């Protein structure tokens, strides 16, 4: 995952999900929040922590974990473990416990959503070039229908076989865990922060994937704005939610995209057609873990808000969804998070 000039732009503007009221003008007692921003996993990562046990050290430990996970799971690094799995020519590959955990969870969500979230779309993502969209010399192009059909034929979670610690990729499929690994990194970062100081509070924001370390000032909710997906005003929100724990993630068609002849082509691909999803603009999901919220937001985007709003709660999530006509759909339990307690 590459560091480019576009990555630095992300530092200045978190486009979709932003923490509102990170601190107050007068910080309370000793709970002074310390923050640091870094590029990892192809996005901007901000860690904000208050702790009486060296918050700067906790932050660095969290960011170090993000760097470690990137080195292991990035498809853009030739020596990453995920690249070794993809390059194993369809032979069984022995995974370690961590890789097995992430892949098995990804496959579980893929099956539960009937492939709306699919971790085995590497060939399609590479064909469209969305894995390189941040490069300075990137030029968007629409692949031919034949090329897309061929990539669809060599994609899909059904071609991933897991037997214990061994994984086999059949039919030439390639894994791309970009739709779940940021969430996993956030969960790991939260676990590290809480292990170093069980009383630590704060949050981790990895490019619209937000996980709560602990309540603001130990007792208050964090206010999180879901920005209007078609507004140029970063302060225009569709809604505001209040979290003391858990995670919230937004997937949108404005994150990584290019426009050709007035048509927007974005990075969230419909696994059935091989083309970017149409009719959905954004999908925001709240879940107990960032890992699940990350994958479920992608699944909801593919399924569409009207359908996702019905089935998402059975998968452990609550959500807000927007279609291309700017109609909004929410799950029945979404309103629970919009009331400050």
Q: What does this protein structure show overall?
A:
The protein is of the alpha+beta class and about 350 residues long. Helix 2 packs antiparallel against helix 7 and helix 4 runs parallel beside helix 8. Helices cover about 30% and strands about 25% of the residues. The termini are far apart. It has 3 domains: about 80 residues, ApbE-like domains (T-fold), CATH 3.10.520.10; about 100 residues, ApbE-like superfamily (T-fold, Orthogonal Bundle); about 120 residues, T-fold. The protein has 9 helices and 16 strands. About 10% of the residues have low confidence.
The total strand number stands at 16
Strand order of the largest sheet: 2-3-7-8-11-14-15-16
CATH homolog superfamily of the largest domain: ApbE-like domains
Specify the overall morphology.
globular
CATH class categorisation of the largest domain: Alpha Beta
Low-confidence stretches: 5-30
| Structural class assignment | alpha+beta
* Helix share bin: 25-40%
Q: What share of residues are in beta strands? A: 15-25%
Radius of gyration: 19 Å
Number of domain units: 3
- The CATH architecture of the largest domain is Roll
Q: What's the pLDDT, averaged over the residues?
A: 91
**Largest beta-sheet details:** 8 strands, antiparallel
Question: What are the secondary-structure elements, in order, as H or E?
Answer: HEEEHHEHHHEEHEEEEEEEEHHEE
Distance between the termini: 39 Å
